[in-house]
């Protein structure tokens, strides 16, 4: 698998005679140099945007990226009208108000909105943007914030390599984010959930090492990969 970052696609066309693959992708690298790749299939991911025209016509206030503005109780500015899911803004535990539509977030928001519509008093606790995606035999996951200036190391629990990037506040040591990439059998989803729980409860990066996580030689190491990455971040932060 080849991963190209900082590369913008300029055109997708039919492959030239004799060229491998059915399609030719022409792109430009960050330094402006031309990049060309052959492919049989190209997936174009354009993102999502909220469809809120009906709500806007009814008088609902819109917020980030045109999503419906709601408070933590999922109330709109309209009396007795609640909204949840991909059409509303996201209350993020680290970023504040943003727009980050995810299925898990929609389920939680829907539960809050439904309970409150029936007279309850529940607040949406906030999202961390925790997500995992399978890419062929690999899995990529993230939670919290990303920081391209922080160190990342590769560790080898069992026979599968995991690349981990830790994001933390160097002043307070607070854990702010974690990104993982590894084989689908390397418990990537389980490990991102460890970090998501830590961020939710305001843990420091160093405190991750104190977690009592399961261990047996066939399945893990005495220090989980997430803990080893946390220790590496702590050492690097202390040297700066």
Tag the structure with descriptive keywords.
about 240 residues, alpha+beta, FAD/NAD(P)-binding domain, 3 domains, 5-stranded antiparallel beta sheet, 3-stranded antiparallel beta sheet, 4 helices, globular
Could you give a short description of this structure?
20% of the residues lie in helices and 24% in strands.
Question: What does this protein structure show overall?
Answer:
- The chain has helices at residues 53-57, 103-117, 188-200, 225-238; strands at 8-14, 23-28, 34-39, 90-92, 96-98, 131-135, 138-144, 152-155, 162-168, 175-183.
- The protein is built from four helices and ten strands; from the N terminus they run E-E-E-H-E-E-H-E-E-E-E-E-H-H.
- Helices cover 20% and strands 24% of the residues.
- The chain has three domains: 1-46, no CATH class; 53-117, 3-Layer(bba) Sandwich (FAD/NAD(P)-binding domain); 131-238, FAD/NAD(P)-binding domain (3-Layer(bba) Sandwich), CATH 3.50.50.60.
- The strands form three sheets. The chain has a five-stranded antiparallel β-sheet, with helices on one face.
- Residues 148-159 have low confidence and may be disordered.
- It is of the alpha+beta class and 240 residues long.
């Amino acid at each position: 698998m080849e991963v190209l970052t900082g590369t913008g696609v300029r055109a997708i066309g039919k492959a030239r005679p004799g060229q491998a693959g059915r399609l030719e992708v022409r792109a430009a690298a960050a330094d402006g140099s031309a990049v060309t790749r052959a492919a049989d299939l190209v997936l174009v991911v354009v993102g999502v945007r909220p469809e809120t025209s009906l709500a806007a016509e009814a008088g609902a206030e819109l917020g980030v990226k045109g999503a419906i503005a709601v408070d933590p109780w999922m109330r709109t500015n309209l009396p007795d009208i609640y909204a949840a899911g991909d059409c509303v803004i996201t209350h993020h535990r680290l970023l504040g108000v943003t727009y980050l539509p995810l299925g898990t977030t929609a389920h939680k928001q829907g539960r809050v909105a439904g309970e409150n519509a029936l007279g309850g008093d529940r607040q949406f606790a906030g999202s961390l943007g925790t997500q995992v995606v399978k890419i062929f035999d690999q899995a990529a996951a993230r939670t919290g914030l990303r920081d391209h200036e922080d160190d990342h190391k590769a560790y080898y629990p069992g026979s599968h390599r995991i690349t981990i990037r830790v994001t933390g506040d160097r002043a307070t040591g607070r854990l702010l984010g974690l990104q993982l990439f590894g084989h689908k059998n390397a418990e990537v989803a389980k490990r991102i959930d460890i970090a998501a729980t830590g961020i939710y409860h305001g843990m420091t990066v160093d405190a991750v090492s104190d977690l009592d996580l399961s261990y047996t030689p066939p399945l893990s190491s005495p220090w989980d990969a997430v803990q080893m990455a946390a220790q590496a971040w702590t050492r690097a932060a202390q040297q700066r």
